[in-house]
Amino acid sequence: MAVSAARSRHVLVLDLHDDPAAIAAYRHWHRRGGPPAAITNALRAEGIASLEIWQVGDRLVMLMETTPEFDPTAKAARDATNPDVQAWETLMDRFQRRLPFAAEGEKWIAAEQIYSLDDQP
Q1: Which positions ≥6 away from 88 have C-beta within 8 Å?
Q2: Fewest CB atoms within 10 Å of the CB: 55, 72, 97, 112?
């Protein structure tokens, strides 16, 4: 998947509690029309052009493309004062499990790209 020079790709990882009911509930909340409109609007307002979450077992992988306007520090500050985002995060915390090496308060962990077919001769 090519990303234009104006966009940046972010790959983030997080686990779910290894519980079929929790995983089903998480998937239900993320179905089409599942997240509250305020959450979708907050994401789009931050310069997030595309966001997908993929799942295998209890592992989640988020693929996010952002525009040059995206500022993760400013987004985090606005999210911290947005009651809709805070309510969503509290709800999602019921299903999510931090990776063992996550720093205190860190949720989604950025993955490091170590290979690209495009870079190969």
Answers
A1: 35, 36, 38, 39
A2: 112
pTM here is 0.90
Q: How far apart are CA 112 and CA 93, in angstroms?
A: 24
- Residues shown for the chain: 121
Say if CB 119 and CB 76 are below 8 A apart: no
User: What amino acid occupies position 91?
Assistant: L
Range with the poorest average pLDDT among 36-40, 57-61, 102-106: 102-106
CB of 63 closer than 8 Å to CB of 52: yes
pLDDT at 28 over 60: yes
Secondary structure of residue 74 in the 3-state scheme: helix
Q: Where are the alpha helices (DSSP H) in the chain?
A: 20-29, 37-45, 72-80, 83-93
Residue 105 confidence class, pLDDT cut points 50, 70, 90: confident
